[in-house]
Amino acid sequence: MPRLRRLTSREVLRILRGFGFEVASMRGSHAKLVRMTSSGERQVLTVPVHSQLQAGTVRAIYRQASRFIPGDELRTSFFAE
Asked: For residue 46, what is the enclosing H or E element?
C-alpha cells in the first residue's frame, strides 16, 4: 500500500506547476494557484505556504488537485511506494 509522502509547500508548488498551475496571488500564508483549460475553464487550488505540511493537509491538497488532474498522474508525486 503506498504511503503519503511528507512534503513541503515548495515541493507541492513545484508538482502543481508541472501540471500547468501558476501562482496567481499570495495572501498571508496561502498561495492561490490557477490554470486555464483549453475550453476556457478556470481551475483554482489553494496551498498553504509552510515549511513542512501535515499529512492531512497534503492529503487535502491531493484530493483538491484530483478534481482537475487524473489521480494516476498525481499519485506518483504524492505517494511513496
From this structure: strand 42-48
Q: Which segments of the chain are extended strands (E)? A: 3-4, 22-27, 30-36, 42-48, 79-80
Q: Using CA atoms, how far apart are residues 52 and 9, in angstroms rounded to an integer?
A: 7
Mean pLDDT of the chain: 93
Cα Rg of the chain, angstroms: 12
Task: Report residue 37: phi and psi, to 5°.
Answer: -85, 170
Task: Write down all domains in the chain, each with its CATH number in brackets.
Answer: 3-69 (3.30.920.30)
Residues 6+ apart with CB under 8 A from 26: 32, 49
Query: What pTM does this model have?
Result: 0.90
Q: What distance, in Å, lies between the first and last C-alpha atoms of the chain?
A: 7
Half-sphere exposure of 81 (CA within 13 A, CB side): 1
